[in-house]
Amino acid sequence: MQTTHNIPNIRPTRAGESVVTTLCIRALQSIARTARRWNNRRKVSAMLDLSPHLLNDIGLSRTDVIDAIGSVGSQDPVEVLNARRVARCAEMTAMRGHKNYHR
């Protein structure tokens, strides 16, 4: 009986590195990404203390912040907020181009 495993082919990333070194580097990078996401989630949570006017000035709403905090644990909440902000800016730009837009 032959068993196949779905294990990616791990090769050293630099000349002279061993496979173990490469695996350690990748593990540390993964830990660093996870720590950065947790730190960003904490910082985004602090944004709930901002007034609606301040959030609006940076192109966000309280709902955007709440959604970012509630995003999947593997997703960086800062990326969620950036995507919302960019989408809102594009929407506002499109509205300004519309002939019935009055500000």
Which helices and strands appear, and what pairs or packs with what?
Elements: H1 19-46, H2 52-57, H3 62-69, H4 77-97
Helix pairs in contact: 3-4
**Helix/strand-derived class?**
mainly alpha
Average the pLDDT over all residues and give the rounded result. 82
Q: Helical stretch count?
A: 4
> Which spans of ≥5 residues are poorly predicted at pLDDT below 50?
none
**SS strand fraction:** under 5%
Describe this protein with a few key phrases.
elongated; single chain; 4 helices; mainly alpha; 103 residues
Summed up:
The chain is built from 4 helices and no strands. With 103 residues, the chain is mainly alpha-helical. Helix 3 packs antiparallel against helix 4.
Could you characterize the architecture of this molecule?
The protein is an all-alpha fold and 103 residues long. It has one domain (19-97). It is 61% helix and 0% strand. The chain is built from four helices and no strands. The chain has helices spanning 19-46, 52-57, 62-69, 77-97. α3 runs antiparallel to α4. The longest helix is centred in the N-terminal third of the chain and has 28 residues, at 19-46. It is elongated, with a radius of gyration of 21 Å. The mean pLDDT is 82.
